[in-house]
Write a structure and sequence with these properties.
The protein folds into 3 domains: 127 residues, no CATH class; 70 residues, no CATH class; 77 residues, no CATH class. 42% of the residues lie in helices and 17% in strands. It is built from 11 helices and 10 strands. A 4-stranded antiparallel beta sheet has the order 3-4-5-6, with helices on one face. The protein has a 4-stranded antiparallel beta sheet with strand order 7-8-9-10. The protein is globular and about 75 Å long. The two termini are 25 Å apart.
Length: 345
């Protein structure tokens, strides 16, 4: 989730029993709930570095332990040496709420279409429950409303926080139901026209997904349906874009409309895929799709992106719907030599 949501969620938790225990617990919750995103510093080097490290070790077991220890040390140190008070929280309490804050950050990132690497650096596999966009306006409204009501009306802080958490849980519940319903509807309407799934247990029904696909499964699954996903909308919890991955194309399903998008790997694409920029994107991408733009000189511009983050209506050309944030571009010469590689279009 975005850091505004993480912060408001932490402030809401601070108004429950979890926030009781002395001065500094709320600060520890807020800091810990945002701490895993410290990996943003990797982006100071380049976009490739950011994508390679984002939601990596800081979102894995070492991140929970390490950040869960650093956060209470900082808060306790500030409370002890800069603003000492008699009601300051004890270190064990700060440690407990910090561990909880870091863990809840990771658990809130998991049910997004972006996903997270739960076991990094021991395993770099991505895991996701495709329920929420990165920014959910409904969560914003629920959490902000609860915080404002608890601030405006004295004596309602705890009650408004509990109500906000209950509404938040209901929001997730609705999305689970509509997510599975969207997959079932797509399977019923378009499943018979698609190849048989490589893994029947994962097609049009899986809630928890992980990637990348093993090379063995993709080879043995030539001609079969590799993967499916229902991607949430930024606008409505009832609008889902279903993606079906085939060996050489994707079928994008939105309501009653289905669009087939080619994804053929030519020698030019293979040459471009060897660059570091593209390798980083492919390591992140769940549904990599490629577009080749031929040049008069005999070379080509090869663009890779992730179908999860292709924006806009399904009837618009893919080239016009790309998200530059998750696009890698490689310019090739007439003999497939690499002339340029970069993130963005």
């Amino acid at each position: 989730m975005d850091n505004v949501t993480h912060t408001m969620f932490a402030l809401t938790l601070a108004r429950t029993r979890l926030g009781r225990g002395g001065r500094g617990t709320a600060a520890a919750l807020v800091l810990a709930s945002n701490a895993p995103d410290i990996d943003i510093v990797a982006g100071l080097g380049s976009g490739a570095n950011y994508l390679a490290w984002h939601r990596g070790p800081t979102h894995g077991p070492l991140g929970v332990v390490g950040l869960g220890l650093v956060t209470p040390v900082l808060v306790w140190g500030c409370a002890r040496f800069w603003v000492p008070t008699d009601d300051s929280a004890r270190f064990p309490r700060l440690l407990a709420v910090s561990m909880i804050g870091v863990l809840l950050h990771i658990l809130m990132d998991l049910p997004t279409s972006y996903g997270t690497r739960l076991f990094s650096p021991f395993s770099w596999r991505w895991f996701a429950i495709d329920l929420m966009p990165i920014v959910d306006v409904y969560l914003w409204a629920i959490l902000a409303g609860g915080l404002l009501i608890g601030t405006w009306w004295a004596g309602t802080r705890r009650q408004s926080a509990v109500i906000a958490l209950a509404l938040m849980a209901a929001n997730y519940g609705v999305r689970v139901a509509t997510h599975q319903e969207a997959l079932a509807a797509a399977a019923k309407r378009y499943g018979p026209s698609l190849p048989a799934p490589c893994d029947p247990s994962a097609a049009f029904g899986s809630l928890v997904d992980s990637w990348p696909q093993s090379s063995a499964s993709q080879v043995s699954g030539t001609g079969c349906l590799i993967d499916t996903a229902a991607i949430p909308s930024f606008v409505s919890p009832f609008g889902w874009r279903v993606i079906a991955q085939l060996p050489d194309s994707y079928v994008e399903i939105y309501g009653d409309d289905a669009t087939k998008i080619p994804n053929r790997w030519t020698p030019q694409v293979t040459a471009a895929a060897r660059t570091r920029t593209v390798q980083v994107l492919l390591g992140f991408s769940r549904f990599p799709v490629v577009k080749v733009l031929s040049q008069p000189s005999g070379g080509a511009i090869v663009q890779f992106t992730d179908m999860r983050f292709v924006m806009g209506p399904a009837d618009r050309p893919l080239q016009a719907r790309r998200s530059a944030l998750f696009t890698a571009t490689v310019r090739l010469g007439p003999h497939n030599e690499i002339l340029e590689e970069r993130f963005g279009e």
